[in-house]
Every structure is written in C-alpha cells, then in structure tokens.
Amino acid sequence: MATRYAPNSTGKPPVTDSVLLDIDGPIGRITLSNPDRRNALTWRMYEELLAACAALNASEVRVAIIRGAGGNAFAAGTDINQFREFRTGDDGVHYEQRTAEVLSGLIGLRMPLIAAVEGAAVGAGLAIALCSDIVMSTPDAQFGAPIARTLGNCLPPAVTARLYASIGRSRALRLLMTAELLDAERAERWGLISAV
Fold it and tell me: What is the pLDDT of residue 117?
C-alpha cells in the first residue's frame, strides 16, 4: 500500500489497481486507484483497503476521506473479471467473508469517514459509501446496485441492512430489484447522501 501519492507530470493518478493512503496531520485520505476500470476493486485493493483502515486507526488522524482516482468514478463495484478465477462455491463464500471484513473495517474506523463521490458509486462502491458517516457528491454522481442485471443480487446482508436504514425498505428494494441508478439529486432527496 502506498502511503503517499504524488501525481506524475501529467497530474493523473498511476494506472494501477491500488489503494493509496495519504496522512497529513489530522486528515487521512484514502484513494481508490484503478482508473482504467473506473476504480473497480480488485482482490489486492480489498487487502490494501483493510490495511489502510488499520493504519488510520493506529495514527493520530481525526477525520478520513475516501474517494476514487481520476474524477470519473468513485468505485464501479468489484472488478468482476476476477470472478473467472472462481472454481468452487467456497471461492464465492470466501469473497463474501473478505468483503464483509473490509466493510466492517471501514465502519469500525475510530474517526469519522467522509465519502467524496464523483461519478459512479455502484455495487461495492455503494457499499463503501454506506459505510461512511458522511457522503458528499458532485452533481454527476450515480448510486446503485446494477448487479441485478449481471450477477444477480449478491450484496452482503449487512450492506442491504445499511441500505434499508439509509433510504428505507421500499426504496432499497426498488433499487436492488430494478438495478436502477440514482442521480445525485434524488440520492440527496432520499437521504442517501448529505450534500451535492
């Protein structure tokens, strides 16, 4: 895990799947960096995100901010290309257990977590936003769980429960069953985010 990120000469983030942690006094910044895949999370990124949580909890940081690199997406879910590696049902169970552990790590941070959402926060991106204490977004942000169109509804129960608590059961079911994406304005109206 990188502990400090300095932009290259183009000002763009590195083209790699990584979680970058920058600690500057009382502020910790987590950047999900997989811009070629709209910051979709890889297995490595899940491990690095868990390590970032441990580093933040061991630091003097008083507030943490999480965002996606590149300005086009917060996180477009888990990188589903990796599911081709699955050979047994146990592979899926292990994946769910590990992602639940990572989300618990975010929820368990000892400082407030702010999600700064630009672009898509879908699937795992939505789950990360739901683990945040405050969610702020740009006007072009979109929130949802479009996995109903691809893999079927497979969000961990804890994520579904947080979605219910955030926007209510009927709205959450609508979002999950239709694979609809919420724009920032409606996400704010529904109470999913704090401010656009």
Answer: 98
